[in-house]
Amino acid sequence: MTRKMVLVDTSKCTGCKACSVACKAWNELPAEKTKLITSYQTQKDFTTKTWTYMTFIEKYENHTMNWLMRKAQCFHCADPACLKACTSDAIAKTDSGYVVIDQDKCTGCGYCVENCPFRVPKVDPVKKKAYKCTGCIERVENNLKPACVQTCQPGALEFGDREALLVQTKKRLAVIQETHPRAQLYGEKEMGGMTFLYLLLDSPEVYNLPVNPTIPLSLTLWKDVVRPVGGIALGGAAAAVVIGVFANLLRGNYRPSDNKVDNVPHVKDSKEGGED
Amino acid sequence: MSIKLEPRNQALGRIDSDMVLRFSTGERVSHWVHAITFFALLFTGLGVLSTFFQPALTLVGGIQVARLIHRGSAVVFIVVVGLMFFVGNPRYHWRWLKSVFNFTKSDWQHVSAFPKEFFGGHGAYPAQDKFNGGEKINSLITILGSVFITLSGIVMWWAPSFPAGLVHWAYPVHDLSMFVMTASVIGHMYLGLLHPDSRAAMSGMLSGYVSTKFARAHHAKWYDELKNEQKDV
After folding, report:
1. pTM for the full model?
2. Same-domain pairing of A22 and A73
3. Residue A270: inside a domain, yes or no?
4. What is the pLDDT of residue B188?
5. Buried/exposed A99-115: b ≥16 CB within 10 Å, e otherwise
């Protein structure tokens, strides 16, 4: 399957939250008790049962208020930190650009949670499994749009082949920039190129998004340096022991002798014939 | 040879005809608690090192049970060995610490002759103290490794209570400490169990006593000091 893309066009979003309802309905996720975080935002963060939610930011500038809304979900990175951090090969990336967790393999170690630059995955403390947006991979592979895209009334969500949709998105950006000079794309290059790509009306930090999300240096060092070098060190130590045993066998050091310990010229003085 | 009762925090009369007391009961308890919990921790930690080892964890009841054993062993690993520095007869623990952090010229000479010894040859080095240069390095790796693996483990155990940047670094630190300590343990076990000359030291960690012959040949400086001390008493 070709690389897919979902455009989240925040310029068209009305903040109706139908996407989060559709997500719950399709994925059979139970409702959770919510409370107001800001004026209209009712969900603070992802949970194991809430894979997408709306953020509302009220930005005041020159006595006018800009109401910035953003649908939050997993970005489905091309270079996913969660996948690199996973200890159980439970996270996979599809050709279509989706990053999916296999709960049968997941052990709930939570390393994906800690290493995701957006802290998207969440671990169920009872089931010991990590959960996050699947991108509705099972729908997409059966030629359906993701549930959130299917339901979006103002057309803020669009689904298609990445190449074609990206061209269309850039045209849309040029139009938006006439009224919103700080409008920009988020996810074209970030994390290797995300499947859920955003057209933001302002800079990422206004939306509380990291400006340059990256795979943590510690994760690269850990998986690409410490692990392989450590493995070689253990192999080296084991090999030294095997060679040591054979060397001692060849030298006849294992043959019993009455005065073995006394024979060992460990003390420098004794070897050099008692200098002093 | 009779087992001596150890008076609270007092020096022991150590030379007993052809045997020398090298390790007090407290030292041996610390060593073996450390050794057993180390291997329990290593085995139960393998599941997150590679999926290759995950089937082996069915031996203990699966990876979730392994996680519990890992954390339980970690507490024993720290608390028991930590306590041995304060209860019973801890003076030898403190002496050991003082000794291994005092790395002398004669220790370096032992270390440079050590590869030859390791493979069955005989290098030349000056008379060694209770701990020779190689043993001091093994001790230093164990002490520093334990400190780093414990600190990083605490951060990983209570990850949500620590800043993300610190948690990120705890993983490579935990792994690195494990690799260094395990490599060291491989060498340590070879010397204690398989090496024709140094395996004579093993009895020191079992009964506490080594033969006078061994003490004179491998730790002459220490043996001479003990002899002088005993003369003064």
Report:
1. 0.88
2. yes
3. no
4. 95
5. bbbeeebbbbbbbbbbb
Task: Enumerate residues 171 to 190 of chain B having a beta carbon within 8 A of any beta carbon in chain A.
Answer: 171-172, 175-176, 178-180, 182-184, 186-187, 190
Verify that A225 and A206 share a domain, yes or no: no
- 0.90 surpassed by complex ipTM: no
The verdict on A194 and A227 lying in the same domain is no
Report the DSSP beta bridge partners of residue B125. Answer: A267
B202: contact with A, CB 8 A cutoff: no
Q: Which of A114, A233, A271 sits opposite B164 (nearest CB)?
A: A114
Cβ separation of B119 and A110 shorter than 8 Å? no
Q: Are A43 and A53 in contact (CB under 8 A)?
A: yes
Q: Give yes or no for residue A203 having a pLDDT over 90.
A: yes
CATH architecture of B17-90+114-232: Up-down Bundle (1.20)
- Asked if residue A230 and residue A136 are part of one domain, the reply reads no
In angstroms, what separates the C-alpha of A29 from chain B's closest C-alpha? Answer: 24
Q: What is the dihedral of CA B35, B36, B42, B44, to 10 degrees?
A: -170
Q: How many domains does chain A have?
A: 2
A232 touches chain B (CB under 8 A): no
Q: Find the closest chain B residue to A255 by CA distance.
A: B196
Residue type at position A216 = P
Domains of chain B, by residue range, sit at 17-90+114-232
Assign A156 a pLDDT band (cuts: 50, 70, 90): very high
